[in-house]
């Protein structure tokens, strides 16, 4: 090896350079001064050691003390908040957040149903709390802030790449502060770039009030959460699971998410805590009564599903994602086809001839969709309508079905709102829609008017009108009043409106029609038997007028289908119209939702 150095160097300096380089590169070294032709110093490579090597090979180098120190710092961070708070988790039947991530994703680089691929921001707020930090004069366990109480990263979940966040309740009750907010926002913004779903594993008491400077009202503060939620909405599925009482700002993430799962005896969400409610209104109320799973699954409609425990919550989400694409550019996944749980040949016998007799729509669905594929959402809210995902010959579809066992399947305000949101989400993620219509229409009365039946009914009709995915409407039995509109009847751009022979389509049902049109004439008949006979005649005449055979004769509907063939008919129609394109007027957006 030849090396030139400055001409002004001394011979001693040349010899020193030669010796040092020879030792370092394990080769002979000649050092020249300036432009000289002869070397000023020559140094031979050191003799090999007894083992035949001059130095330890690079591939035998082990971790340094610096790396070991880093690993020790990481191990400390992974321990979470103060031990006394970790001890309390078992009393609440809750997992420590790192154990929760193991449940969801398995060990990092491990096997199983998923892997935690990487984490961002482990060292958030490290300088403010860690005893090895030069900024911390004295270690104080109560001020431990590992990862600033929020874990974010990416994972493989059931074969799907997802972004995730998870609150660490052992750190200031999972509250949010400046560094955690920064991590949350980065995760959301990266999801916009990647087009991958987001999992929110929430267990947060809200913003950290004593540290609100720097994150509350800033342009890139906690308020940006909901701006990003809005931008992500309809772009990638956002799924939230609640593991504790999420209050104030923390309660908005679950309601902004597309799907929200609560856990019995553990979850709650509310705009304010019971203590704040008492301070503001004087009302004394427990957290579960204020915003527990029963409240939001049955009354507010903010929860899609309620899990029995943490393992069940993961199972529910695992089932849900099987029906969803990664983003709005993709189609929903399909599965190998399976026959239905019950024979389609029993459909006609299931449906009573009388429009006033109840039957369970679940039984009809079980005879149409692939076995065990109906995944119902919001089953306890707006129960007059069923909503959920299923498969027909392996193809994912969203189902909107009236439920005759619940108030005859009349559409109440909650049911209309539930259906509107479901249709809107399904359309956003390219999931075809199947409407199973058996309803006397929208409910009437003073209470439903106060509950905004017109406003919420409008939203259901709007969502159905705006949906651009393939739609199939089946008139199972009753299709009275505006019910046929909300259930994607002929005027609402379905690919088909088909009916079973039990179907009826009319402005109202026979009883109401007779009362409205013939009340005076009937009241004029004194003989009770004669009146009863006339009522029956009028009823039969009216039913002939609204029978689907007349509707098919007038080409109001496309076809009357033998009930035993309904599954095959729907499969063929969804297959044929898979790539249908629908144009909507050019505009910024509608004003209804």
TrEMBL record:
Pfam families reported for this sequence: Carboxyl_trans
Record domain CoA carboxyltransferase C-terminal: where: 339-593
Domain CoA carboxyltransferase N-terminal, chain residue ranges per copy: 63-336
Region described as Disordered: spans on this chain: 34-68, 324-353
Gene3D superfamilies to which the protein is assigned, alphabetical: 2-enoyl-CoA Hydratase, Chain A, domain 1 (3.90.226.10)
GO cellular component, one term: methylcrotonoyl-CoA carboxylase complex
Biased composition (Pro residues): 333-342
Top-level taxon of the source organism: Archaea
A GO MF label: methylcrotonoyl-CoA carboxylase activity
GO terms, biological process: L-leucine catabolic process
Protein name: Acyl-CoA carboxylase subunit beta
Organism annotation: Halobacterium bonnevillei
């Amino acid at each position: 090896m030849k090396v030139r150095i400055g001409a002004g160097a001394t011979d001693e300096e040349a010899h020193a350079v030669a010796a040092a380089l020879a030792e370092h590169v394990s080769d002979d070294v000649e050092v020249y001064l300036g432009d000289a032709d002869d070397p000023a110093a020559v140094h031979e490579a050191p003799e090999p050691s007894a083992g035949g090597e001059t130095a330890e090979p690079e591939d035998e180098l082990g971790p340094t003390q610096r790396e070991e120190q880093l690993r020790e710092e990481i191990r400390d961070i992974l321990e979470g908040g103060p031990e006394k708070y970790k001890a309390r988790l078992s009393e609440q039947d809750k997992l420590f957040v790192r154990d929760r991530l193991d449940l969801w994703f398995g060990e990092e680089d491990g096997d199983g149903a998923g892997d935690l691929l990487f984490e961002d921001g482990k060292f958030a707020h490290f300088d403010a709390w860690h005893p090895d930090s030069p900024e911390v004069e004295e270690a104080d366990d109560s001020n431990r802030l590992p990862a600033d109480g929020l874990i974010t990263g990416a994972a493989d979940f059931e074969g799907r790449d997802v972004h995730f966040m998870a609150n660490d309740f052992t750190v200031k009750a999972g509250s949010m502060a400046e560094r955690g907010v920064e991590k949350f926002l980065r995760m959301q913004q990266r999801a916009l770039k990647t087009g991958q779903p987001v999992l929110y594993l929430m267990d947060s008491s809200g913003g950290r009030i004593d540290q609100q400077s720097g994150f509350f009202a800033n342009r890139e503060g906690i308020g940006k959460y909901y701006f990003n939620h809005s931008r992500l909405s309809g772009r990638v599925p956002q799924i939230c699971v609640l593991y504790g009482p999420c209050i104030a700002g923390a309660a908005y993430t679950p309601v902004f998410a597309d799907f929200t799962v609560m856990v019995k005896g553990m979850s709650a969400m509310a705009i304010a805590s019971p203590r704040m409610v008492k301070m503001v209104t004087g009302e004394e109320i427990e957290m579960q009564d204020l915003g527990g799973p029963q409240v939001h699954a049955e009354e507010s409609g903010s929860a899609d599903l309620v899990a029995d425990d943490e393992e069940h919550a993961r199972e529910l989400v695992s089932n849900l994602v099987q029906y969803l694409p990664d983003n709005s550019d993709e189609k929903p996944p399909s599965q190998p086809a399976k026959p239905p749980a019950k024979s389609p040949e029993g459909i006609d016998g299931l449906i009573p001839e009388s429009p006033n007799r109840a039957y369970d729509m679940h039984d009809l669905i079980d005879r149409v969709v692939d076995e065990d594929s109906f995944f119902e959402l919001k089953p306890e809210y707006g129960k007059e309508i069923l909503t959920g995902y299923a498969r027909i010959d392996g193809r994912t579809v969203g189902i909107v079905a009236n439920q005759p066992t619940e108030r005859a399947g009349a559409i109440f305000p909650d049911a209309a709102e539930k259906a509107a949101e479901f249709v809107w989400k399904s359309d956003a993620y390219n999931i075809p829609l199947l409407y199973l219509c058996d309803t006397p229409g929208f409910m009437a009365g003073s209470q439903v008017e106060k509950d905004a039946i017109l406003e919420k009914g409008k939203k259901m009709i709007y969502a159905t009108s705006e949906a651009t995915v393939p739609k199939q409407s089946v008139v199972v039995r009753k299709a009275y009043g505006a019910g046929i509109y909300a259930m994607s009847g002929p005027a609402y751009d379905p690919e088909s409106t088909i009916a079973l022979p039990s179907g009826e389509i009319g402005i109202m049902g026979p009883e109401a029609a007779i009362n409205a049109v013939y009340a005076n004439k009937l009241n004029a008949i004194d003989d009770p038997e004669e009146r009863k006979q006339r009522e029956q005649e009028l009823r039969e005449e009216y039913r002939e007028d609204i029978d689907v055979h007349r509707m098919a004769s007038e080409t109001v509907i496309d076809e009357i289908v033998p009930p035993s063939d309904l599954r095959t008919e729907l499969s063929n129609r969804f297959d044929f119209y898979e790539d249908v394109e629908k144009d909507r007027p050019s505009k910024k957006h509608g004003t209804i939702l």
